[in-house]
Predict the 3D structure of the following.
Amino acid sequence: MNARSSASRIEATSVTVLNVEPREPLNGFVRRFTLIRGADMAAPARLPAVARTRQTLVFNLGDGDYRVFEHHTARQRVMPPVQLVGAQTTRRADLLVTDAFATFSIQFQHSGVYRLFHLPVDALTNSAVDAVDVLGSVVSDVRDQLRRATTASAMARIAERFLHRYTAQATAIHPVALAADALARTGGRTRVVDLIRASGLSYRQFERRFIEQIGVSPKLCARVARVGSVLHAKALHPEQSWLEIGLEAGYFDQNHLIKDFKAIVGATPTRYLESVDPIDDGFLLSFRASSR
């Protein structure tokens, strides 16, 4: 099992992210496992959770509460010890990271939750629910095992054993999952009409299945994917202008880019990156200490 890590130190703040790739056959259901830790922190940091179209199962491994700041309520919320997070179509919350912060998460492939657990995931969109209520007490047992593990790779093996029990009854991959993958892979530039034609379904059938298995509409999935590709490109090539990156991503002009960016990320591109440093391939971004 291969582990890839990325670390970001922001003045007196240190947030470490370690990604582990799943092994076959679970790589058909899971995109990656991620361990995030905070350490040597003079003050809490905030990690904006940018919009994404995949579901995530998050285990709090720390000794304290796992808190987030929710933008729609302007309040902090204590999260369940294990939470199932649906697709997020905008930046709804920031993670509040302290020295005691440690989470292990399972980020599923498109339709991975639907296929493994037979859940219509549209009910989870833009929310985070107590995973015990949805998946049962087994997730609490898995959390206990994860907290005793000492490495990200060992945690990934525990998660794989947990998920293996569901693979025998998993549903076959559907064309809408392949379509969502294509949108993510191309940064939303694949035409939805072409994906529908390739699926052999009518528009209404395709959209209904897409929302049921992915959690959002095909057009919204493409929009989130395009903004995500812009964030990723800017993190990799900060010397490029927003206009250059936007044109490469398929935007007609900078105004179109700014409109989508504000809707999905919650700020203009320039204002957002003035206050953050990228970690975790551009999708999870940590605030500079000066912004606190």
Observations:
- The chain is about 40% helix and 25% strand.
- The chain has two domains: 3-171, 175-265.
